[in-house]
Automatic annotation (TrEMBL):
One of its GO terms (cellular component) is membrane. The chain crosses the membrane at residues 473-493. Belongs to the UDP-glycosyltransferase family. Gene3D superfamilies: Glycogen Phosphorylase B (3.40.50.2000). One of its GO terms (molecular function) is glucuronosyltransferase activity. It is found in: Membrane. Its EC number is 2.4.1.17. Keywords: Glycosyltransferase, Membrane, Signal, Transferase, Transmembrane, Transmembrane helix. This is UDP-glucuronosyltransferase.
C-alpha cells in the first residue's frame, strides 16, 4: 500500500528529468550587448530545469544555477593591429564588413583554442542541442558534428547576410535594405541600385573571402572525417532573430526562422541603485538618458563633439544620466550624473525618463520602444544606421549624423523630441503593438529550443532552398535552358518561313515584283 505513493513521486521526477536537456550556448563575441541576449536565453533555459553550458567572453550575470560558464575573457585589446575606434569607422559599408570579418576570425580562433573550450571538447560531455551566435563565427558549427547535436543559430542583429546563408530567406532587394545601409523599405531607384550592388558584393566577399578564413579555422580544430563547413551551415535546424515585425520592416521568412526580439527585456523592472533612483526622482522636468552602448565609449568621442554635448546638457532644465567610462568628465554640468555602467533596461522603465540619446543599436531601440521612450539617435557603425532610418520612418525619434554634431544641431534635435509630443505618442503606440504578443519572446525562444531538441533537429521545418546552389535557387540554369529553347524556336521558325517562301515562290525571280513588272513590259 505504501509503494504506490513512492512510485507516483518517482514517476513525476522521471518525467521532469526526461524533459531536461543538456544545452551548449556559444556567445563568444566581444560586445557586451550580444552577450546580454545570449545570457538571457541561457538563464531562461536554466530556470526551466535544463543544464546549460555557456561559452562566452563574459560570465553570466547574475550567476544562475544550472548555467556553467566557460569564460574566455577575450577583449578588443588582444586583437592584432591598432585598437578599433568605432567612431572613426563607418564611412563605407564594406569597411565595416571587413572589420566584422576580422573580429569573427579573431574570436573563432582564440575561443576554440582556449583551455576551457579544448577541455570541453576532450571531455565525455554530451549535448542535446547547441545554440550558436550568428555573427561571422561559422567555424564554431564544427561543434555540432563533434557533439552530434543539432544547431540553433541566434542572431542579435535580426536578419542579416549571415543568417541568409543559414536558412531560406525569401524576399527582394527592392524592399529589403542591406544591414549596413541607412535605407528603409521604400527606396528610390538609386537606393535600390546601390542596395543590390551592396548585397551582391557582400555575398561575394562572404563566399570568397570570409568562408575560406573560417574554413581554415574549422579544419584546424575539428578532425576528419567531418562534413564541409558549407554543409554544417546548410544543416542548421533553426534561426532565432532578435527582432519583431512591429520593430522592423515586414518581410517573409522560412518556417524555421522565428522572431524573438526583446527576449532580454525584464518584464518586471528591478529596483535601481539608491543614488540613481534619487537622482531620477528629484528631476522636476524629467531625465535624459545618454548611452552610446558597450562598444562605443563616451571617452573616445572627439573633444569638440564632447564639448558640444556638454554645452547642450548644461543649458537644459532636465537632468541627464550619461554612461561615461572614466572617473571624471571635464566641464561636467551639475545636472549631469556620470557612471561607467547603468542598468539601462530598468532606467528606461522609469516614468520620469523623457528621452533616450543612443547610438541606435538594436537592443537600445528595442528597449526604447518597449518602454515607450522617444530617441535621438547618433548612429556610428553597422546596423545602427538602418535602425535609426527605421526609427525615423515610424516616427519615434530623430537621427543625428555624427559628422554634423555640433552644439546648434544637437540642441535642435534634443529640443525637437523633448517638446514635440508626436514622438512620445508614436513610441507609446509602437510599445503597445510590440507588447501585444501571445507569449513573451523569451518563452517563445525556449519553446522552439525545446521543440528542436524533442524532434531531433526538426528536419521537417527546413526548406529545401537551404540545399540549393545559388544557380538552382534563382533558377538561373532553368532560365538559361528556357532562353536557349526560345532562341532555337525563333531560329527554327525563321528557317521554316524561309523554306515556305522559297517553295511558294519557286525562285527569286518569280517572287521579285520588279522582275515581274519588267516581264509584262
Amino acid at each position: 500500500m505504501k509503494v504506490a505513493p513512492v512510485l507516483v513521486v518517482l514517476s513525476i521526477l522521471f518525467i521532469g528529468l526526461s524533459d531536461a536537456y543538456e544545452i551548449l550556448v556559444i556567445f563568444p563575441s566581444l560586445g557586451k550587448s550580444q552577450h546580454i541576449i545570449g545570457s538571457a536565453l541561457a538563464r531562461g533555459l536554466a530556470e526551466k530545469g535544463h543544464e546549460v553550458t555557456m561559452i562566452a567572453a563574459f560570465p553570466t550575470e547574475p550567476a544562475t544555477e544550472n548555467v556553467h560558464d566557460i569564460v574566455t575573457r577575450l577583449d578588443l585589446g588582444m586583437l592584432e593591429g591598432a585598437p578599433i575606434n568605432f567612431y572613426e569607422t563607418g564611412e563605407y559599408p564594406f569597411e565595416e564588413l571587413m572589420i566584422v570579418y576580422k573580429l569573427g576570425a579573431f574570436v573563432a580562433n582564440s575561443t576554440l583554442g582556449s583551455k576551457g573550450v579544448q577541455k570541453l571538447m576532450n571531455s565525455n560531455q554530451t549535448f542535446d542541442i547547441i545554440i550558436c551566435e550568428a555573427f561571422a563565427i561559422e567555424a564554431f558549427l564544427g561543434l555540432s558534428h563533434h557533439f552530434h547535436a543539432p544547431v540553433i543559430s541566434l542572431s542579435t542583429l535580426g536578419a542579416s547576410g549571415f543568417t541568409a546563408q543559414m536558412a531560406d530567406f525569401p524576399g527582394s532587394q527592392s524592399y529589403i535594405p542591406n544591414l549596413f545601409l541607412p535605407y528603409t523599405d521604400k527606396m528610390t531607384l538609386l537606393e535600390r541600385i546601390f542596395n543590390i550592388m551592396t548585397e551582391t558584393i557582400e555575398r561575394l566577399l562572404y563566399e570568397w573571402y570570409h568562408i575560406p578564413i573560417q574554413e581554415k579555422i574549422y579544419n584546424e580544430y575539428f578532425r576528419d572525417p567531418k562534413p564541409s563547413l558549407r554543409e554544417t551551415i546548410n544543416n542548421i535546424s533553426l534561426v532565432l532573430l532578435n527582432t519583431h515585425f512591429s520593430l522592423s520592416f515586414p518581410r517573409p521568412y522560412a518556417t524555421n526562422v522565428i522572431e524573438v526580439g526583446g527576449l532580454h527585456i525584464n518584464r518586471k523592472s528591478q529596483p535601481l541603485p539608491a543614488d540613481i533612483q534619487s537622482f531620477i526622482d528629484s528631476a522636476k522636468f524629467g531625465v535624459i538618458y545618454f548611452s552610446m552602448g558597450t562598444n562605443l565609449r563616451g571617452v573616445d568621442l572627439a573633444a569638440e563633439k564632447r564639448n558640444a554635448i556638454l554645452a547642450v546638457f548644461g543649458s537644459l532644465k532636465q537632468k541627464v544620466l550619461w554612461k561615461w567610462e572614466d572617473e571624471s568628465l571635464p566641464g561636467k554640468p551639475n545636472n549631469v550624473l556620470i557612471k561607467s555602467w547603468f542598468p539601462q533596461d530598468d532606467i528606461l522603465a522609469q516614468p520620469n525618463v523623457k528621452l533616450f540619446i543612443t547610438h541606435g543599436g538594436l537592443l537600445s531601440t528595442t528597449e526604447s520602444i518597449y518602454h515607450g521612450v522617444p530617441i535621438v539617435g547618433i548612429p556610428v557603425f553597422g546596423d545602427q544606421h538602418l535602425n535609426m532610418a527605421r526609427a525615423e520612418k515610424i516616427g519615434i525619434g530623430v537621427r543625428m549624423d555624427l559628422k554634423n554634431l555640433d552644439e546648434v544641431n544637437f540642441k535642435a534635435a534634443v529640443i525637437e523630441v523633448l517638446t514635440n509630443e508626436k514622438y512620445t505618442h508614436r513610441v507609446k503606440k509602437m510599445s503597445e503593438l510590440f507588447r501585444d504578443q501571445p507569449q513573451t519572446p523569451l518563452d517563445s525562444a525556449i519553446f522552439w529550443v525545446e521543440y528542436i531538441a524533442r524532434h531531433g533537429g526538426a528536419p521537417h521545418m527546413k526548406s529545401t532552398g537551404q540545399e540549393l546552389s545559388c544557380i538552382q535557387y534563382y533558377n538561373i540554369d532553368a532560365l538559361m535552358v528556357i532562353f536557349t529553347i526560345i532562341i532555337i524556336f525563333i531560329y527554327a521558325l525563321g528557317r521554316v518561313f524561309s523554306m515556305i517562301r522559297s517553295v511558294l515562290c519557286g525562285s527569286k525571280q518569280r517572287c521579285d515584283p520588279k522582275v515581274n513588272i519588267k516581264k509584262r513590259k
